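Quick start: read one record
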Amino acid sequence: MRCPYCSDSTNKVIDSRLGPDQTEIRRRRECIECGRRFTTRERVDEVLPKVVKRDERREEFVRGKLLIAVEKACEKRPVSVDDLGRLVDRVERRVQELGEKEVTSRLIGERMMDELVQLDPVAAARFASVFRNFQGAEDYVAFFESVAEAGHGGNHEG
């Protein structure tokens, strides 16, 4: 593990703890060279299915892509980084629990929207606008009508 500050590879572990969801270990480290401290996270490499894109290409499942997508959707919204991490964890777990060798990007996107609607309906609309390729105001109206019918939202500030 290289120090993010000086790039030296000599460091020592000061503290190890289970993460909040108990699926990762957080390690506090100190660089021997520069003395600065940093945190690393360790999690089990799980076998995840390939993602089948709209154009039929197959890609590896990349957790970081999901996190970036929800971070963009939640920009300037009252959603914590921890909430986003837990959301992505839940989607990743649900995809893995399917037990399939391949899943569609559409299925992953729908699961992301289901989770986002419960967390922040405005962020979900932002995500949906890209994922579903909204063309105009009527697409947003239809989205929020479906959210209202499902009984989500209404308590968030804009």
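The first helix runs from residue 63 to 73.
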